[in-house]
Amino acid sequence: MRYSFDLKEVGLQGIMHMRQAELQCWLVDDSPTVRQVLLHLLHEQAPTWQLHEFASGADLLRQLSNSRAPELILIDLNMAGMDGVELLRHLAARSCKSQLVICSGAPVRVLQSVGELCRALQLKLLGTILKPVTMQAVTDLVRLVEQPQRAEPHRPVTAPLQVHEVLRALQQHQFYPVYQPIIDLRNNSLRGFEVLSRCIHPSRGLVPPDAFIGSLEKYGLIQLHTFDNLEMALRDLQGWLEQGLDLELSVNLSPQLLDDLTLPEQLCQLLDSYQIPYTRLHLEVTESSCAGTVATRLDILNRLVLRGFHLSIDDFGTSFSSLERLQELPFDTVKLDKGYIQRALTDEACRASVESTLMMARRLDMRIVAEGIETLAGWNMIHNAGCDMCQGYYVAAPMQAAQVLSWCQQWQQHYH
Fold this sequence. Notes:
This protein is an alpha/beta fold. It is built from 15 helices and 14 strands.
């Protein structure tokens, strides 16, 4: 499936807010025919751009030494002499700030790996275009580049909570659960909620999870917090079930909890106290915490599954693990990382990787949940690719328990 840069709903940032006539675009490819085609297509779609062609990476670097860097560089990979990967290394050494587009006929797995290389080199990769290049791909690229930049909202860095603040927050019940809906894409029905945590600090106000989760783990308090938050969520779930809602909950487990052999018994006891079936709880474990899984963690994971709990691998796509590796572990659900999904919207190689992951998951009888769906374009992409479920701000932001019933009614009215 060929992907084009669809901007209508994605909300991607353009290169910069500038007059089109000032934009310089360089392209490097050792094929005169390819250069001619690209120049023709670009001239038709962006007649005011200043276009410059180069037959080799060496020629481009010489020009770069004598002039300012362009806003955009299109790079082929498989070139004689200096190949595209070598050129990327030289651009990184020069701290090149140009936006880059890989335009190549290389295999998708190579394009995906080159994308990882660009991130490792701290280069600005805008996306990839597969050869043979189409008019639609160039049209969408031009739209992406010429879109005015949208500034990211300023998010001040919040200092981590200190041990006395964490203890006070636990003692004074300053932590509370919030719920983000998870939607079944087969029929747009509400499947359940992911349980997240928030903290109201007496002087700082609302504190983001990044400022307290690490502190809870550092001071050995993450298990206490997890069970406190889960108990509040189970109390809410009990009420929703009594009102006729058919819901499941997903909760995150810190890797530290997977070192306690009594975890299955503790969870069973807690759910029993609220008469919640174990099958209504999905336990999310990060992909990184399963790397080199030791016997204790395998012991715990298998006993949880035997008792009826569902296991989800969280943040899939943030490392080099594969579904083949994960099938050795007792997971039934894979949650695709938000960044993985967002890269797929602008990167053909990453999109192909997502589609391949979905195909493999179906073969392994695993469900796929896409996280971080924030736009209609993201929704359409994962829906068309055959993803099972999704969550994200396009559906709803995390909400407090008091908002859940009214939100559920609104969702049913609009989508059923």
